Amino acid sequence: MNTSLDCIPCLLRQTIEAVRLVSADPFVHEQILREALHWAEEMDLNQSPPVMAQRIHRRLREVTGVNDPYLAAKMWFNGISVKLLPALRAEVQASPDPLMAAARIAIAGNMIDMGVNGNVTEADVNRAMRQALSEPFFGEEERFCQAIAKARSILYLADNAGEIAFDRLLIEQISPERVTLAVRGAPVINDATLVDAQAVGLDEIVEVVGNGSDAPGTLLDDCSLDFRRRFAEADLIIAKGQGNFESLSNQSGNLFFLFKVKCAMIANQIKQPTGTQVLIHSSVFRPD
Questions:
Q1: I need a labelling partner for 216 at 20 to 30 A (CA). Which of 175, 183, 258, 261 fits?
Q2: What is the value of pTM for the model shown?
């Protein structure tokens, strides 16, 4: 997915929110914002939005000396999400279609995205889980279920901390022995890393690998050779979140995107309103 002009104000807003999170110094705020404005002027709009976001957050960490500006928020989201798992697991097990119930709960968890909304509250998360099975849904359920049934190896690309707890419910339904979970290789925004996978116990049921990149998406050229090999060899790839959709929407292969539509640009591309849960195959955008 290319970067739209409408993505640029969002990236600048994200820049201001992030730098204020880690520094109270107005000089630092201005410095980072001015650099981001300069980069926006020269950026290649043929690249996906995570490319610019990666550059901004790398510079933020460099200037402030804070390796993981969102660490406290990520730990908090993991904690409140894990507390919800027993009740949600029981709901999945009682459903006439446990796989799709778990998928919808995992997609609903995609609202924990501080790149889009830096003010997500515990009440917001609780509400999202209550409404997970009744929210508007657009997807290819039968094709997804068939793909899971056939796949011997599944690469699951995680998105955000907190959200990753709800991914566990879907992975349990898929059957963990076939799944490798990929997380970001280094901190960026509130995206999940190995620490977050461990916090929600996913390392106890699946192999967890870092992708070698600090982009808030999956920029294959920036990922490690090991991750790219796993990506190429997987029978099925499940990609969670808008960042993974933005960076992989032109990628061919047996790839499903699971995310919540959170901005007008994605809504326009998907032809579905903001707030919709989406489960679609990559061939919708680039036929194999």
A1: 175
A2: 0.93
